Amino acid sequence: MRRVVITGVGAVSPCGKDLRTTWENVVEGKSGIERIQRWDPTDMASQIAGECRDFDPEQYIEKKRVREMARFIHLAMGASHQAIESAGFEPDDALKDRTGTFIGVGFCGLEAVEQQHEILMTKGARRVSPYFIPSAISNLAPGQVSMRWGLRGPSYTTTSACSSGAHAIGEAFRWIQRGGIDAAIAGGAEASVTPLGVAGFAAMRALSKRNDEPQRASRPFDRDRDGFVIAEGAGIVMLEEREAAMKRGAPILAEVIGYGATADAYHLTQPAPEGEGAQRAMRAALLDAQLAPSDIDYVNAHGTSTPTGDVQELQAIRSVFGAHAQDHLWISSTKSAHGHLLGAAGGLEAVIATLTIRDGVVAPTINLDSPDPACEGLELVPHTARRRATRVAMSNSFGFGGTNVTLVLRAH
């Protein structure tokens, strides 16, 4: 099997409009959660979210083409531009044929659906935009990225709820590892902070209602957590076959060495007892990486701030890592700062795991004021980032329908 390295990363998130700002604010423990500003949330049970407020799509997309794309595609284009630019990736014609585009999306362009439905109901069918369908369907995130850079390898979207971005990276890893392609753009994008999106999750009682303290609302593993905080954004990595990357002198940030994916086959929204499916995903990723649990230094937890999910993920980690979980392993949930990006979560958190390895600093779990009893004995890096040489990092992503993904990254 061929080795696969990460040579570039890009991010657009509630914590920053670009990679540098996002990473700095996540490390500093600065929350990107605020009261929703794009529309009036007064009638909503949950009125807070992680919005990408400073992001300007025209920085990455021709002005006349912006209207061809829904917001999730704008975010994907921005993060992909950053990843490709930071990698210095300038493929010739032959390499373009062997470069894939894999971008996970949980929903389609939800705001476009809402807007065009309103036009249909109030102004009639003839006023619906001819750009509606190509702007809203999920696979136009990788589709637009592939067209922008002329990448002619496989291009598709993985849709698996909150595991979508991680699945995309895992699939791109496999394509390169097995020789089907030589490089790939991979990650996730999501823009579901819309009236329908927020109302839908609120109806499930999945969202935090801490409306008066938005920056304290996302509190993974804390005894007083009351649900996740919905957010939008994109996280993208540039993957390349190792020998080719080294030959061209690419900056190698980390190596992807393990990918595990499982299904709970248990419940619509609740994880299997004791995180059984998550356990199998982590074990599968370790087996794929040919590592023992004791080789892992850091886990970027799925850690959404839900009452059930957080506890069961910690139970799964204890089961997989045994004594190592208390003796050596560090765990944090950066969703405490940037919120839950749904289908983009796995992409952004893989970017964060990469930077953890690169910089030797573990971003904190903020708002962890009163740890749940399930946290006893575990190092969850509360409140403040800490320096630590991190050789191997694991990133977990779990989603509704019982879909689980674990990625393992290693210093190169």
Provide the structure class: alpha/beta
Shape: globular
- The radius of gyration over CA amounts to 20 Å
Reported by name, the CATH topology is Peroxisomal Thiolase, Chain A, domain 1
CATH architecture: 3-Layer(aba) Sandwich
Percentage of residues in helical conformation: 25-40%
Mean pLDDT: 97
Oligomer: single chain
- Please tally the helical runs, counting DSSP H or I stretches of 4 or more residues: 14
Give the helices and strands as they follow along the chain. Answer: EHEEHHEHHHEHEHEHEHEHHEHHEEEE
What are the low-pLDDT stretches, counting only 5+ consecutive residues below 50?
none
Strand content: 15-25%
Q: How many separate structural domains?
A: 1
Largest sheet: 10 strands, mixed
Q: Give me the side-by-side strand order of the main sheet.
A: 5-4-6-7-1-8-14-13-9-10
Q: State the end-to-end CA separation.
A: 17 Å
Number of strands: 14
Question: For the record, what CATH class applies?
Answer: Alpha Beta
Q: Considering the protein shown, what is the CATH homologous superfamily?
A: Thiolase/Chalcone synthase
